[in-house]
Protein 1
Amino acid sequence: MLINLYDKCNNTYILFIEVYYNAHHLYCIFFIIIFPRILFIILFPELGGDYEIYTTVAENILNGCGVSLSNPLTDECVPHFGGNHGPGYPLFLSLVWSIFNHSDNSVRIIQSIIYALSCLWLIRSTYILTQDKKVMIFIAILLAFSPLLIAWPRYVQTETLSIAATIYLLAELILSVAIKRIRIISIGLALIFATWIRLDNVFLVVPVAVTVIYIQGFRAGIIKGLLIAMIFSSSWGVWTARNIVVELPSLIPSDMIMPDGSRSPTGYLKWTKTWITHEYERPGALWGINRKNYLGITIPERAYGSLEEQLEVNKLLEELKILDQEDFPIKIDNKFAKIASDKINNNPVQYWITYPSIRALRIWTNPFSSFGWPNEMPDKGLSKNERLAAANGNISILIAKAQEYPIHALSKGLNAFYRIILMVLFAVSFILLFKSKNKEHIYIIFLMTSSYIFSRTVFFSLNSNFETRYMVTTIPFIELFVIISMLSFFYKRQ
C-alpha cells in the first residue's frame, strides 16, 4: 500500500515537473516571438494607409455612434460596414482604446501578443502531429523571425491580426489531421475571427474544405463542412441583418461600394482591368477614385488600345475632374463600362488570361514590397513611377537609388532574397514530397497550402486592385510545409 502510494506520488511529481518544464519552454518561445516585434514597435512605429478610416469607425463606436462614419457636413452618425473589410478591426481598436486611453502603442502590443499566442498554438499542434521536437523548434524560429511576418505589428492595420487568425486556423487544421477528427467549432470560430478582420480571408475556407474532405471523406466531409459553414456564416448573418436594417447599399463591403459607403464606379474599375498589370500603376488610376480626388488621376500611355480610346477616355476624365470631391457620376461610369466591354470583346484572351497571368506573376515576384519593414525609400527615393520603370527593366534607376540609400536597399534586397529562397524551397519540397517518410501528413499540408495559394492568387489576379502584401497570410502555410517536408527528407537520409 505504501509502495503504491509512493508510486502515485512519484508519478504525480514527475508529471508536475514535465508540465513545469513544458510551460517554461512555452514562456521562452513566447518571449522570443514577442521581443523583436516590440523592438519594431518602439523603434519604427507607423500608422498605415487605412488608419484614418479604421480609427474614425473606432472613435464612433466609443462615442456611442455604433459602427459608423461621421458625415463631414452634418457630423451625424452614418452607418458603415466597419472599414475596408469588416467591423472586426475597428471593434478591436475601440476595445483596446477603452482600456488603455487611446494608446496606439497598446494596440500594437496587444495584437503582437495575440500573434504570439496563435504561434504557440500552431507549435503545439505541429508537435502533436509530428511528435518531432526538431520540427517544433524550426517552426518556432520561423514564426518568430520570418522576415515576411516580423515587422507588421508596428502598423495600426489589419495585417498582424489577419496573420494571427490565419495561424490559429492553420493550427486547428493541423490538430484535426493529428487526431483524425475535424474540430468543427474551433475551425468555425477561427473563420469568424479571420473574416471579421479582413474579408479576403474568406479564401481560408478552401484549405478548410480540402482538409475536411481529406479526413472525413466526401460524403461525411460535406456534412462536417456544412456544420462549419453554419457556425461561420451565423456571425455574418447577424451582421447582414444589421446592414439591412440601417439601409446600407450592400450587405458587405465590396467593389460595388466606396470606403465612404457611396456607389463605386464599377464601369471605370472594369476598364482599369483591361490594362493594369502592375501594382504601381494602381496609385495613379485608383487612389484618386477612392478619395474622390479626380484631379489626381493619371493614366499611362500603355493603357490605351487605340487613339480613339485615348481621346474618349481623356474626354471623360476632363469631365470627371470638374466634379472633383463629388460622387462618381453614373453617366460617365456607364461610358467607361462601354469602352471596357468593347475592348474585352475585341481581345477576350488578353483580358481573361494574359493580363491576369502577368498580375499573378508580379504579385509573387515584386522585389519592392516592404512586407511591413521600415525600408521604404524616403520621399526623394524611389517614386511610384520610378518603381514602375525599374520593374519594367530600368536597372540604372535601382543602381542609383541603392547607392544613395544603401541601408534601405540592403533591407529590401534581403527581404526579396528570402522570398525567392522560400519559393525555391517550396518547389523543392514538392519534389521531396514523393521521397519523404510520413508522407501522409506532409501530403495534406501541401494540399492545404497549394489550394490556399491558388485561390488567393487567382482572385487578386482577376482584379486591378492587387498588392504583393495581400499574399502575406499564405506565408505561414508555405513555411510550415517547407520545414516539415525538408526535415522529414533530411532525417530519413540520416
Protein 2
Amino acid sequence: MSKLMIQGTASSVGKSVLVAALCRIFTQDGFKVVPFKSQNMSLNSYITLMGREMGRAQVLQAYACGLEPEFYMNPILLKPTSDKKSQVIVNGKVYGNFTAMEYHNMKSIFKDMIKEQFEDLERKFDIVVIEGAGSPAEINLRDKDIVNMGMAEIANAPVLIVGDIDKGGVFASLAGTMLLLNNEERRRVKGTIINKFRGDVEILKPGLTMLEDIIHIPCLGVVPYFRLMLEDEDGAIEFSKKVTAPIDIAVIKLPHISNFTDIDPLKNEKDVSIRFIESKEEFGNPDILIIPGSKNTIGDLIALRKTGLEDLIKEYSNIGNIIGICGGYQMLGRWIKDPYGVETDEKEIEGMNLLDIGTVFNEEKTTTRIEAETIGLKGNMKVYGYEIHMGICEYGDKAKKLFEIVDKNGEKADYPDGTVNEKGNIIGTYIHGIFDGTEFREYILNNIRIQKGLPLRRSDIYESLRDKELNKLADIVRNSLDMKRIYKIIGREFV
C-alpha cells in the first residue's frame, strides 16, 4: 500500500486540483486509487448514492479515480453558517452546529475514527492520495490537528508542499512553511511543487536552486497556469462580472452562497456567459437570473433587501427569467419560518412573493440522490441530481408543481419538487445538479436562443466533458512533475 499527501502553503493554492490530477495519473498507470481528505470546509457539497453528504472537491477526485463518490473520502465536512459557527457533518450526517472554538476542542474525539477509516482504505486500495487543508504552518492549531501534519502522522505519509506563484511570494511562503514545521514534520516533506506559473520556466530556475539550498528539499516540478472546464475548488473560483457571450446569465453572489458548482455545466455552453452580481449597479439586463443555494437563506434574503437587489429582482420578474435553486427557491416564496432556530433567531420572514410556496425549516436535513421528470413545463424531460436542505416547502393554491421525483436513493418514489409560476418565467427547485443532464439545460437555453434569434444548440453530456478535461489535467501535470521521483517517494516502480 502506498500513500502520498499534498499540503499547501495556504488555501486556494491548487491542492484539490493537483490531487485530482495525481489520482487520474496513478489510475491511468493501472493502480487502484482513492482520494482522502479528513476534514474539508466547504459550502459546496454533494450527496452520495447512500444519501450521505461530502465535499465537492473529493467528488471530482473520486471521478478522477474512476470511482463513485463515497462519504469515507471526506469523513468530516464543515459548512460555515456565520463567521464564527459551522454545521459539522461527520460521515455524511449532521453532527451538530458548533463555534470554531467548540469544534477545535472536539477534534481529538474524531482522531481514532479517521485512523480506522484510513487504515481501511489502505487495505482496499493500492494508492491513497491525501489532501491537506489550508496550511500546515498554522501553528496555533497544531496541537489538535487532524488534517495537515497531524493527518500525515496518522497515515505515516510522505508530504509534498504546493505553493501558488501566481499570487506572488511563493519562495517566501514555501521557505516560511518549512521554517515553522518541527524536525519530524520537515523529515516528512519530500518535495515542493510550484503551481500556476505563467511565463518562461528558465527564468524561474535560479530561484528554485536557491530555494532548494535554503530548505534542503527538492522542487519536483513547476505546473503552468491553465484553465480547464472543471469544477472550481472553494476559494479559487473566479466570480466574473463581465458579459462575454450572447446569452447573459447572471448569478446572485449571496453572502453565504453554496453549491455554486450547479452552474458549471452552463459554463461549457459556447454561447453562454456567467457573471456574478452583488449590487444593483451590476444587475444589468440578464437573459436569465439564477438565485443559487445558501447556507443561511434568511440572512442572505435580509442582505438582498438591504442592498436593494430584492426590489430589482421583483421588477425584473415581470419581463425576465428567474431560476431559484434550494435557498434561492425558498427566497422566491411567500414566507420562510425557522421555528427551531436552524439558521437564525428570526422565527419568520416574508419572502419575495414570486412563487406560491412557503418554507418551514426542519430539525432534520434532507439528503437524497434523485431522478425526476418535468410535469410543469412543455414536454417530458428527465433530470437527475441531489437534494441538500433543511427546509420543507408547503404549496399554495396557485402553486404549479415543476417536477415529479421518481427515484430517491435508488428506490422508486412519487412526490413533487419545485414550482413554476403561471407565466412560466419563474421556476424554483431543490434539485442541485439540475443542469448536469442535457434535456433540461437544452430546454432552458434554447428558449432563450429562440427569443434572441440565435441558432439552437444541442448540449454536450457534462460527464463526458468532465472526463476529457480530467485527462487534459493529467497530461499537464504529468508533463510538469518529476513523476519518476514521485513514484520513488511512494515506493512504487515508475511506469
Protein 3
Amino acid sequence: MKKILFLITLGGFLFSSCNKDYLETRPTNAVSESVVFTNTTDAWKAIEGMHRFLYRQMYGSQALGGISGNMIFMDALGDDLVMTGQSNGWFINEYRWINHRIVTSNICFYNYLYFFSFISNANQIIAQIDGAVGPQADKNAIKGQALAYRGWAYFMMIQLFGERFDAAGQNSGLGLPLRTAPTVGATPRVSVAEIYTQINKDLDEAITLLGTARRDKSHINIHVAKGFKARVALTQQNWAVAAQMAVEAREGYALMNNTQYTSGFNNYTTPEWIWGIRQQEDQGTFFFSFFAYMSANFNSTNIRTNPKAINRLLYEQISTTDIRRTLWDPTGTNTAFPIPLNPNGSRFPFMNRKFLVANTALSIGDVPLMRASEMFLIEAEARARISGQEAQARQALFTLARQRDPNYQLSTNSGTALINEILTQRRIELWGEGFRFYDLKRLNLPLDRRNSNHNASLAGVFQVPAGDIQWQFLIPQAEINNTNGVVVQNPM
C-alpha cells in the first residue's frame, strides 16, 4: 500500500505525550513541511493525509477510529441509540454521561486533540501553499480544502467544549484557543462568538476557492463546504443561510432508492452521499472501525453482545409503509436480521441492520459523513422557522419523506407541530450517523430516555436538563497543565 504522508502538528500544538502517545512534534510517518510545500504535487499529499486521518486509529485506542469515534460518542450521549449490553465496555461510560466530564478521559482527550490536529495541519497548508510551484487551480483546491477542514474542525469542537450558541445572546462565554497560523505558544480561549466568526470566514473563503470537481468523494469540494456552512448556519439559527446553503449543497445528488437504502450504508458511490470515508481492503481498520461497533454483522465482541438498537418511542413513530421501519426488528426474533454467526450473536428488540459490512470477515466499510437527505432536512427545518416559508418547508420535507414512504402525504402541520414533524424525520433518517448530541444541544432540549427500551443498569442517566453544565465537555487536564493555566477549564 502506498504510504500516505500526514503532517501532524509540525510545531504547532502544545500537547506533550502526557502518558498518552497523542501527538509528536516530528512524527516518523511525516515529512518536513519545507519538502511538502515545494510544489503542488507534493502538497496534495498533505491533503491526502488529512483525508486518511478521517479513519486513522487514534492514540492506540480501539474506540477511536478517526471521525467514527466522535460519531459513536455523539449518539451514545443521546437518546435515540440504545445499548443492549455492556459487552467489552466500549462507549458504555459515555452512554452513562460519565467520561466527557472527566478531565483525563479518552473522550475529552480525543475530541480535543483530534480536531486540533486537523486545525494544525490546515494552518500549515494555508500558510505555505501560495508559495508552492504548480497550477493555480491546484493551489486553490488544496487551500480551499484546508480552509474547509479548519472551519469544520472548529465547528465540531465548539459544539462540545463551548456553550450552546444563542442567536439572541452575546455568546461571550469561553470557546476555544483560536489558532490560524502555525505558531508555537500558549493561546488563551476566545469567546464562542469569535470562534463562530472564524468558522464562517474559513468556510466562505473555501467556497470561493473550491469547485465541483474533486478526485474522490472523500475529498472536499464546494458542495461539501456548502454543507458545512448549512450545518453552521442551522446551529447559529441563521435560517435563511441554512436553507440556501442546504439547497446548493445537495445540487446534483439524488436521494437513494429503497434498494440502495437497505444495502448497509457501506458504499460511498451511492448517489445521495455528498461526503464520505472510502476504505480500501488494504487499509484495514480491524476493531477501530465504525462498523466494528455499529454494524449488525461484523463478528466483533461488541456487536455479538451489544447490537445497537433504536429508541422504542422513536421507532413507533415510523409509518408502517416507510422503508426505514425495516431497518430495525421490534421483536428481536426476526432471523432475517443478520447477526455474527461465529459464535452466534445476541438478538434484542429494536436491534438495527442499518449498517452492514459487505464482507463479514472484514470490519471495513465506507462511512457516510454528509448526505443529501440531511440537506433536505436542514432546508425544511430552516424554512419552517422563517415567516412565510412553511409551504417550502413542507415541500422539502415531502421530497425526502415520500422517497422513504410511498404513502406519505404532504404535511398539513404548521408552527411548532411542523417543526416537530421535521425533527422527528431527522431523528429517524440520521439515526446512528453521529448527530443526536449535537442536535439536542443546539435545540436546547433535555436528554430524556424515560419510558423507552433504555436499560437502567446500562444507561445510568435518564435525564439531563437543557442548559445544564453537563452539556459542555471538559478541557483535557493536559492542556491546562501544558499551557500553565493559560487555557482555563469549563465549569465543573
Protein 4
Amino acid sequence: MKNNSVKKVVIAGGGTAGWVAAAALSKQLGKLLDVVLVESDQIGTVGVGEATIPPMRTFHSLLGIDEQEFMRATEAVFKLGISFKNWGQIGDEYIHPFGSTGQGSYLADFQHFWLHAKSKGINAEFGEYSLEVQAAKANKFATSKTGSINYAYHLDATRYAQFLRQFSEKHGAKRIEGKIQQVQQHPDGDIKALLLESGEIIEGDLFIDCTGFTGLLIDKTLKTPYEDWSHWLPCNSAIAIQTESVEPPKPYVTCTAHHAGWQWHIPLQHRVGNGNVFCSDFMSDDQAKAHLLNNVRGKVLTEPRVIKYRTGRRSVFWNQNCIALGLSSGFVEPLESTSIYLFMIGIVRLMNMFPFNGVTQTITKEYNQQLIAELENIRDFIILHYHVTSREDSEFWRYCKNMSVPDSLSHRLELFKEHALSYQDSRELFRRDSWLHVMLGQGLMPKHYHLIFQTMSDEEMRGHLTKTRETIADVVAKLPMHYEFVNHYCKSQR
C-alpha cells in the first residue's frame, strides 16, 4: 500500500537549479527529510544565470551563506543594474537599476514630480535621481551596513553549482552519480522511483525535476502540456562564449540590441561571459556566431555553444508528486537575469507549503497559481523591452513593435501612457521603479501626470531636485572603485 506522507525528496538533475533545491531543503528541512540528488557528470548543464537580481541575497541570508565566501568561490563581482543599448532606438542607452529612484509624496510617486519639473525646463535624466545608476556609471561600489545601495551579483554559474553542492552535502543531502534510464510510476500516475542505467532504483515520495529543457519527469513522464509564448518572445536561440578580461569588471551587465535580438556582456573576476540571443527566423546560427565573435573583446576561451529553446511555461509546475524547477518548468530568456531567482522562489514557495502529510490538490493548486502569476509578470516585463520601441530598421523589430501583447501588459502601458501611473502587486518581482526606468528608457512618455506638485513653488521644486542630485553625487564621490572594493572584499584565491 502506498504511503502518502513525504519523507524523502528526490531531485532529478543537478546544475544550478538542482543544487539550489538541495541546498535549501537540506539546510531548512534536512532534519525532517531525506534529500537525494541524482545527476551524471556525463550530462552537461546549460549553466544559465551568470547575472542575478537582489532577492538572491535574501535567499543566501535564509541559508546562512557568507557573502564573501560565496563571492570568492564563484569569482563573483557586484551588479547594480543593466545597461540597455539600442533598444528604444539605435544610439539610445539607459540603465535599469536596482533600488528606488527619487522621492515622491504621499499622493504621487516621484515620476510625477520629475515630469512636472521637465515641463518647467529641468531636463535632468530620470537616472540622475538613482544612486545605483550614478554609481554604475562611475564604476564605483561598496557595501554598507545601512543598506543604502541595492545590489546583486555576476557569478560563474558552474562554480556556483559546485559551491551549493558542497553546502548541501555538508547539511546532509546525498548525491548519487548516474544516468536515469526509466521513470517508474504508481498506478495513480505518481512517480514512484528513478531507475538508473547502473540498475540502482531511487525511490522517493516527492520528486523535483531539474533535468533542464529535457523535462524528463514533468514532460516525458507526466506529459504536462507546454504553453508557447513565441509569438510574444520570438527569440529562440542563444550562443554563449567566455572571453578573457581586458579591463576591470564593471558593476553592471550590458545588453546591446541588434537587428535580430541582443548580446550580453557579463564581467566576472576571472573572465567575461558573452552571448548572443536571437531569433532564428531572422538570423542563422552561423550569422549569430560571426556577430558575437566580431563584437567581443579579449581572447575567446571557449567554443561557441548554441542553445535552442522555446519561450513559454508548463501548464502547471506541480503535477502529481512532481515539481518542475528551472528550465524544465519554462523559459523567458535571460534579459533581466531572472533564471536563478525563479529556481529560488520555486523552492522557497515549496518549503512554505511543504506537503509533509501528503500531496493534495489544494496545495498544488495554490503553488501553481502563485508561481504562474509570478512568471507571467516577469514575462510581461521582458515583452515590454521588445514592444515599446521606435525601431523599425529590421523585420524583427517591426514585428516586435507591432505585435499584440498580453492584456495585463497592455493595461500597464496604457495606464502609464495616459496617467504616468506604475505599480507593483504584492507577489510581483519587479518593482514600480523597474517598470519606470524601462518604460522611460525605451521612450514611452506619459501624456498626463498628477498635478499635486504644482502646489510647490518653482524655487522650492528646483531646490529639492538639486539637493537630491547633489546628495547622490556626494555619496558616489566617496565610494571606492568597484574593482578596488572587490579586490579588498572578496578576491578569489584561485
